[in-house]
């Protein structure tokens, strides 16, 4: 069916902490004053991407997953839902401090197929920008006591970041993206968030935003342990490939193209987001120009493809 990449239209999401960089830096048509997220590769019902080319143009990615499993080498064991979600987030202000459940809790308590393990590639960070990643509580009783008292400064761990940093965030990790940071997030296809602290902000109607301290206390990993990982690098012709993480739910790479490279798709399918520069991708004698802000899937029906140009990409697969 498809002997070419499947290009996708991003879905823009309004967020109280969002800014305008998704427009100014990526060229997306932002419909809100505070546009915080672009769901750039998504089959989630809260923001499914539309296909922009080929026989399935104007269908959603979820439509393709359900009706054309051959594009993803989908089996019954893969379940009914597309497994991954890729976003670009513009944190003009601090995001709420939050935590996500694992698969078993999400299925049992929320009735959804996936919890949320995620990872972040920092695209841009203002001087002095930082994340919250983890906590200092030694046991669950200390965690609950600190939450109830609102002892956030002593509880939460702050981590400075700069552009090019990579952060792995397993389910159960208390976290927050700080103001002045733009990230590309690769995650399980889940939209379950338990808000722990929100800086006493109010919504558009002046009401405090809901917190979910009970659920957060139940799902948070105690004590917190910083994830350990090794970045592995290889070179394929003019392409430098850095494997950022390989875990149960996804493997994520940073590709740095400086010339030409011929590649074989060895996984069921590849998700690709262009984060810098421009290039050409050729499949079966069809050539497509790609540039910063474009997102596409190399389907299972494409075995070999070539890249030419100068560009950086974040690539992922299950």
Model description:
By secondary structure, the protein is mainly beta. It has helices at 21-24, 61-67, 103-110, 140-149, 152-155, 213-219; strands at 6-9, 11-19, 35-41, 50-51, 84-91, 97-99, 118-125, 130-135, 156-160, 166-169, 175-176, 181-188, 194-197, 232-236, 239-246, 251-264, 270-283, 286-291, 295-298, 304-317. It has two domains: 6-219, Jelly Rolls (Sandwich), CATH 2.60.120.10; 232-317, Sandwich (Jelly Rolls). The chain is built from six helices and 20 strands. Strand 17 and strand 18 form a beta hairpin. The protein starts with 5 loop residues before the first strand and ends with a strand.
Descriptors for this entry?
Jelly Rolls; mainly beta; 318 residues; 42% strand; zinc; 20 strands
Helical content (DSSP H or I, runs of 4+): 10-25%
Task: Summarize model confidence as the mean pLDDT.
Answer: 96
Order of helices and strands: EEHEEHEEHEEHHEEEEEHEEEEEEE
Give the class-level CATH name of the largest domain.
Answer: Mainly Beta
Overall number of structural domains: 2
Cα gyration radius (Å): 20 Å
Tally of strands: 20
Point out poorly predicted stretches.
Answer: none
Q: If classified by CATH, what would the architecture of the largest domain be?
A: Sandwich
Oligomer: single chain
Enzyme class: isomerase
Catalytic activity: D-mannose 6-phosphate = D-fructose 6-phosphate
Cofactor: Zn(2+)
Pfam families: MPI_cupin_dom, PMI_typeI_cat
């Amino acid at each position: 069916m498809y002997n070419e990449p499947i290009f996708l239209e991003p879905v823009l999401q309004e967020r109280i902490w969002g800014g305008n960089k998704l427009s100014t830096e990526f060229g997306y048509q932002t419909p809100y004053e505070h546009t915080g997220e672009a769901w750039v590769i998504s089959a989630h019902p809260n923001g499914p991407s539309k296909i922009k080319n080929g026989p399935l143009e104007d269908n959603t990615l979820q439509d393709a997953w359900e009706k054309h499993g051959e594009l993803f080498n989908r089996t019954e064991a893969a379940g009914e839902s597309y497994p991954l979600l890729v976003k670009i987030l513009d944190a003009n202000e601090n995001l709420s401090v939050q935590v996500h459940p694992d698969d078993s809790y999400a299925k049992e308590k929320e009735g959804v197929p996936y919890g949320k393990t995620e990872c972040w590639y920092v695209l841009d960070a203002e001087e002095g920008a930082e994340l919250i990643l983890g906590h200092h509580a030694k046991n669950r009783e200390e965690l609950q006591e600190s939450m109830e008292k609102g002892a956030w400064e002593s509880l939460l761990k702050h981590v400075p970041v700069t552009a090019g940093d990579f952060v792995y965030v397993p389910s159960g990790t208390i976290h927050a993206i700080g103001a002045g940071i733009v990230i590309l997030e690769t995650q399980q296809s889940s939209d379950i968030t338990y808000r722990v602290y929100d800086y006493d902000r109010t919504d558009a109607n002046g009401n405090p935003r809901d917190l979910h301290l009970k659920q957060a206390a139940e799902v948070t990993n105690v004590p917190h342990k910083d994830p350990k990982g090794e970045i592995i690098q290889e070179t394929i012709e003019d392409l430098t490939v850095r494997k950022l993480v390989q875990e149960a739910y996804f493997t994520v790479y940073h590709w740095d193209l400086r010339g030409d490279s011929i590649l074989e798709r060895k996984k069921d399918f590849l998700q690709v987001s262009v984060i810098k520069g421009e290039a050409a991708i050729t499949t079966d004698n069809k050539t497509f120009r790609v540039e910063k802000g474009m997102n596409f899937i190399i389907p299972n029906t494409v075995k070999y493809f070539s890249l030419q140009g100068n560009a950086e990409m974040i690539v992922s697969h299950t």
